[in-house]
TrEMBL record:
<protein>
    <submittedName>
        <fullName>Sirohydrochlorin chelatase</fullName>
    </submittedName>
</protein>
<keyword id="KW-0479">Metal-binding</keyword>
<keyword id="KW-0456">Lyase</keyword>
<dbReference type="InterPro" id="IPR002762">
    <property type="entry name" value="CbiX-like"/>
</dbReference>
<dbReference type="GO" id="GO:0016829">
    <property type="term" value="F:lyase activity"/>
</dbReference>
<dbReference type="Pfam" id="PF01903">
    <property type="entry name" value="CbiX"/>
</dbReference>
<feature type="region of interest" description="Disordered">
    <location>
        <begin position="1"/>
        <end position="25"/>
    </location>
</feature>
<dbReference type="GO" id="GO:0046872">
    <property type="term" value="F:metal ion binding"/>
</dbReference>
<dbReference type="InterPro" id="IPR050963">
    <property type="entry name" value="Sirohydro_Cobaltochel/CbiX"/>
</dbReference>
Length: 268
């Protein structure tokens, strides 16, 4: 995805040991979807704190697409008002779709400050690390026997989107997780795409896979995550949440965006 930007210069940062001002790093704005479930906002704030702890000195902020305050447009306006001139927007979303391709770039384009939009968090091996941890926490065996593997499987329960790129991203995560676990991992969706979690569970049972876990491929607790977990015939993992790997992944997307756009400007 091409970064959304406006031509504004960087703001001077703190004074260094030799009296020279260091350029302030571009602000990181974590873009959450928003949820009516209060646990979601608490999770995102905890994740934001982890990111700040990993990168002291980096300005880290939060903006939502909808449902929760602060809204992204308000966060960007506040940053502009305080003199911030450069920001990288990191979507707290797990694949490509309408929000990543249209909503966030549209909000960024309306901002006065210079903005760049990072890729969504998924697919990425750090997501697989988090999924694996959450499954083990829920009771997934760390060293299953061959007999257990033959009857086990995982349904990767995601939100769903009408955008085929979103399904492609979820499929790739499912393949990475299957390689990690050594059992089939089937993507399934809460809305807007097929198969549903119920349908995926039925198909796996017909193939003799009766020890099936539902892996919650959601960034935070909410209605869809709760509904999907309720179908689990064996165990269901918690959402990805504020796992340390998620904080590292957010910073990875931030750094990748800066490196890509800086390389492009040098080439020009």
């Amino acid at each position: 995805m091409r970064p959304v930007s406006t031509p504004l210069a960087g703001r001077p940062g703190p004074v260094g040991p030799h009296g020279r001002r260091r350029p302030e790093p571009p602000a990181l704005v974590l873009v959450g979807h928003g949820s009516r479930d209060p646990r979601a906002l608490a999770t995102v704030r905890e994740l934001l704190a982890r990111v700040s702890g990993l990168r002291p000195g980096l300005p880290v902020h939060l903006g939502h697409i909808e449902l929760n305050e602060p809204l992204l447009v308000d966060t960007l306006a506040a940053l502009d008002a305080r003199g911030t001139t450069d920001a990288v927007l990191v979507p707290l979303l797990l694949g490509r779709g309408h929000h990543v391709k249209h909503d966030i770039p549209g909000m960024a384009a309306g901002a006065r400050l210079h903005t760049r939009v990072a890729a969504p968090l998924g697919p990425h091996p750090l997501l697989v690390d988090t999924l694996h941890t959450r499954l083990v926490e829920a009771g997934w065996p760390t060293d299953p026997t061959s007999a257990e593997r033959r009857t086990s499987a995982v349904v990767l329960a995601a939100a769903g989107s009408r955008d085929p790129d979103n399904a492609s991203d979820t499929d790739r995560t499912a393949r990475l997780l299957a390689r990690r676990l050594g059992v089939p991992v089937v993507p399934a969706y809460a809305s807007a795409a097929a198969p549903t979690v119920e349908s995926a569970l039925h198909d796996l049972a017909a193939r003799g896979r009766h020890r099936v876990a539902v892996a919650s491929y959601f960034t935070a607790p909410g209605r869809f995550a709760t509904q999907c977990a309720a179908h689990a015939p064996w165990l269901a993992s918690a959402p990805l949440g504020a796992h340390p790997a998620m904080a590292h992944l957010i910073l990875t997307r931030y750094d990748e965006t800066l490196a890509t756009t800086n390389d492009a400007s040098h080439a020009a």
